[in-house]
Amino acid sequence: MFSKNNAEVIGFLGNDPEVRYSPSGNGVANLRVATSERRKNKDGDYEDHTEWHAVVVLGKQVEHVAKLRKGAYILVEGRLQTRKWQDKEGADRYTTEIVANRVGFLEKKSATDADNEPASEEEGF
């Protein structure tokens, strides 16, 4: 049987990356990426709906991702992973996040461009 676990989002960084290093020097960066879409409400009017995605970046990409800042327009490719953790009261909690294998910085297109497709990735990511 075939199975596939791919996730891809193109959106805006909601805050500066949270970067940590283990005593052995392994880096981890946590990102929050916002994607938006227009939806028609019950009155027939369009409203923007924003979805927030938790992203984890590991390895050599952490150095590049650490340079990004809130509002950056980025592409994230990776896989979905759900992890279990316990809150302060000891209750089990679950978080689903994208474990990135590729993060790229995208240029914003000008408002005069005919379509809403993202421009090419910059080198280095």
TrEMBL record:
<dbReference type="InterPro" id="IPR011344">
    <property type="entry name" value="ssDNA-bd"/>
</dbReference>
<dbReference type="InterPro" id="IPR000424">
    <property type="entry name" value="Primosome_PriB/ssb"/>
</dbReference>
<protein>
    <recommendedName>
        <fullName>Single-stranded DNA-binding protein</fullName>
    </recommendedName>
</protein>
<dbReference type="InterPro" id="IPR012340">
    <property type="entry name" value="NA-bd_OB-fold"/>
</dbReference>
<dbReference type="GO" id="GO:0009295">
    <property type="term" value="C:nucleoid"/>
</dbReference>
<comment type="subunit">
    <text>Homotetramer.</text>
</comment>
<dbReference type="Pfam" id="PF00436">
    <property type="entry name" value="SSB"/>
</dbReference>
<keyword id="KW-0238">DNA-binding</keyword>
<dbReference type="GO" id="GO:0006260">
    <property type="term" value="P:DNA replication"/>
</dbReference>
<dbReference type="GO" id="GO:0003697">
    <property type="term" value="F:single-stranded DNA binding"/>
</dbReference>
